[in-house]
Design goal:
Layout: E1 8-12, H1 16-27, E2 33-38, E3 48-49, E4 52-55, H2 58-65, E5 72-75, H3 82-94, E6 99-102, H4 107-110, E7 120-121, H5 137-140, E8 148-152, H6 157-166, E9 173-178, H7 181-196, E10 204-209, H8 215-225, E11 229-232, H9 239-244, H10 246-266, E12 271-277, H11 286-309, E13 315-321, E14 323-325, H12 331-340, E15 345-347, E16 353-354, E17 356-358, H13 359-372, E18 378-381, E19 387-388, H14 389-399, E20 410-412, E21 430-434, E22 440-445, H15 453-464, H16 477-487, H17 489-493
Parallel strand pairs: 1-2, 1-5, 2-4, 5-6, 8-9, 8-11, 9-10, 11-12, 12-13, 13-18, 14-17, 15-20
Antiparallel strand pairs: 3-4, 6-7, 16-19, 18-22, 21-22
């Protein structure tokens, strides 16, 4: 969301979204005056809409505005491609606009429900990567109408965006579950503000502070909430940090997920959507190993549910995708901070590549998969082509008006523990197949999972959860790594680097 200031406003795009914003700005005069629409559509240029002239083409008009000390531009073209946004941004920057905001291209806005409160300052993630797929979100969320929906990790990057989009789903209640008090406070406050400004529908918002690792609490809270649907996004995700704290990674991600699955099955949750990562494929990090185990736990629970072990049945599914642009703790915020400090930007290796999509696109596809997906399936979001991190660093440097190497240096610091040059979206035993839904693939396995999951969990449990009968193994990192390495050979073969952490 954005903060507002008054002044002369130019809205880029005279379509329905732009017109809706202009109407709202006019009604709330404290936000400034819309001087004109700028548009490239010859059928709109020269007209007036609600008394506001439509000027264009944008490139030509912007040159004239450069001599008038234009205040602020709001780009209101939610369906614009990345290439077109880059072009418009460059034109507006050269025209000297003091501030450039954007109405993000999320599916609620594509359907016409645009609000000023949804605008924010444009940043690199709006211009990098591919053009997101347009998802008819209101149609996709029909399965959630009147339901009670729980989002774990609701204060995180993925969880919070799921909650924003869920406002349009007509859910009766939206439970915002998280361990961090401040992050849950922030998303709860933001969602209330969005509702007050007319975004979405009036779902009851319930913030909940809790810990997935507390099995008794998860039993109690799921019994109280009577949730119909769970979106499980909560996890420790920072790869090098988890290499230093491997026991904490397994304790939180694996046993926390186990507690949630157990409580969901006990208390009749009907649909359970687990969010996972490309780092779970042939994992070389403890974080990846934890998510690999979680994938199997959820799919095993689906098989057990389908065999009649859960009253009424429970739909368990997994949605896997790669990196998202701009998530907390990711490279984009780090690069931005390093640029603001004058550099250098730190990149692990000149050839390291990752798959990226925007957070809104990933969440829209997760919500769609949650509705159309079938129990026991692992879905993969189509990530397009991998992006070289060095190229992304150079694009970000130019976004902020500098030249790579000339103004801002790029320093190569080497791969860290648990990292590899390229991530995989599927393993050797997996086959991606198309579905009828755009950018949602289904992963089929060539053969069943190897190894005994229960035995693996039993071996890991006393390391993570204190057992007086086995107190000597409690928080034993080396033992934990050996157990994981035997179960997941890629972890032993991968680039583990050094680890000197003694904190668990």
């Amino acid at each position: 969301m954005t903060t507002f200031k008054s002044g002369r406003l130019y809205i880029i795009g005279a379509g329905f979204a732009g017109q809706t914003l202009a109407h709202e700005i006019k009604a709330k005069a404290i936000f400034g005056e819309v001087v004109a629409f700028l548009d490239d559509d010859p059928e709109k240029i020269g007209r007036k809409i609600d008394g506001i002239p439509v000027l264009g083409p944008i490139r030509d008009v912007a040159r004239l505005l450069a001599m008038q000390n234009a205040d602020e531009a709001i780009i209101a073209i939610p369906s614009a491609s990345r290439e077109y946004l880059k072009e418009i941004y460059g034109i507006l920057k050269r025209a000297g606009f003091q501030r450039i905001r954007i109405l993000p291209g999320i599916s609620q806005i594509i359907e016409g429900d645009a609000h000023l409160i949804q605008t924010r300052s444009i940043d690199p993630q709006d211009l990098l990567g591919r053009t997101p797929v347009a998802v008819n979100l209101k149609q996709s969320l029909v399965y959630l109408r009147g339901k009670r929906v729980l989002v774990t990790g609701a204060g995180g990057s993925i969880g919070s965006e799921l909650c924003r989009q869920l406002l349009s789903g007509g859910a009766a209640r939206l439970y915002l579950f998280g361990h961090g008090e401040n992050s849950i406070y922030q998303i709860d406050r933001e969602l209330h503000l969005l509702q007050e400004e007319g975004v979405g529908e009036k779902a009851s918002l319930v913030p909940i502070i809790g810990d997935l690792k507390d099995r008794d609490y998860m039993d109690w809270i799921l019994g109280r909430l009577k949730a119909d649907v769970v979106f499980h996004t909560a996890a420790y995700k920072h790869v090098p940090m988890m290499e230093e704290n491997p026991v904490a990674a397994i304790e939180n991600n694996v046993f926390g997920t186990d507690n949630l699955i157990w409580a969901a099955r006990k208390h009749g949750v009907k649909r359970f959507v687990h969010i996972t990562t490309d780092k779970a494929v042939d994992p070389v990090s403890v974080y990846g190993a934890s998510k690999c185990i979680c994938e199997r736990m959820v799919l095993d629970a689906a098989a057990e549910s389908s065999s009649g072990m859960d009253a009424g049945g429970l739909n368990f599914m997994v949605v896997r995708f790669g990196n998202v642009l701009g998530s907390r703790g990711s490279i984009m915020p780090l690069f931005q901070q390093q640029i603001e400090q004058g550099g250098p930007i730190t990149v692990t290796h000149p050839d390291v590549r990752r798959w990226f999509m925007t957070i809104p696109e990933a969440c829209s596809l997760v919500l769609k998969a949650g509705g159309v997906g079938k129990t026991g399936n692992l879905y993969l979001l189509d990530m397009g082509e991998p992006v070289r991190i060095r190229d992304m660093a150079e694009q970000m440097i130019r976004f902020y008006g500098f030249e790579p190497e000339q103004d801002i240096k790029i320093a190569y610091v080497g791969l860290r523990s648990g990292e590899r040059l390229d991530e995989k979206l599927w393993g050797e035993d997996e086959i991606p197949t198309d579905t009828e839904f755009d950018r949602i693939l289904k992963i089929e396995r060539k053969q069943p999972f190897a190894g005994d999951l229960k035995a693996l969990m039993d071996a890991l449990r006393p390391i993570c959860c204190f057992d007086p009968a086995q107190q000597g193994v409690y928080r034993d990192q080396e033992r934990l790594r050996n157990i994981l390495g035997e179960a997941l050979p890629s972890l032993s073969a991968g680039n583990r680097g050094s680890y000197g952490g003694s904190y668990g």
